[in-house]
Amino acid sequence: MIDDGYTFVESSIATTGYSEALANLIECEMASGLFTNEGSRRVRLHVIRRVLSNRNQEAQSNVNRDTLQVGDVIILNVRHEAIDGISIKYFLDDLAEGYTNKHLSDQDDNITYLDYTVYERLNDHSASVAFWKDHRGNLDCSKFMARFPYDQP
């Protein structure tokens, strides 16, 4: 499923060769180009389900596909604009609450990421841009930016 703000992907891996296949999927998730500076997509959720071998098919058929099972993996890629060092605590608290209570408490005064982006677009950032242009000078960022494996300039 792809939306303007997020991508949801679900994969299945057989128990035979599970570790190698999982390592390959994780490597693909870390590849550059997952997010673009021009795009609005900020979150990518990838659920990887472990599929039992043929002899365990009966047990597999009784599994509720709406819940995670032992051996399933969640990979959550989030751009810094959506979750940073401060907001990660709140995100993890909400995730734990939703997992434990099966819902989040309804708080009318919550500010959403969409609220924040609207607020940011209304602000004048010309002073910040001028500050960084002045302090950055003629710095050639391409020499060290190429070493970052996720976001690209």
Automatic annotation (TrEMBL):
InterPro entries attached to this UniProt entry: CAT-like_dom_sf
Gene3D superfamilies named among the record's database cross-references = Chloramphenicol acetyltransferase-like domain, Nonribosomal peptide synthetase, condensation domain
Protein name, entry field: Uncharacterized protein
Q: Which organism is it from?
A: Adineta ricciae (Rotifer)
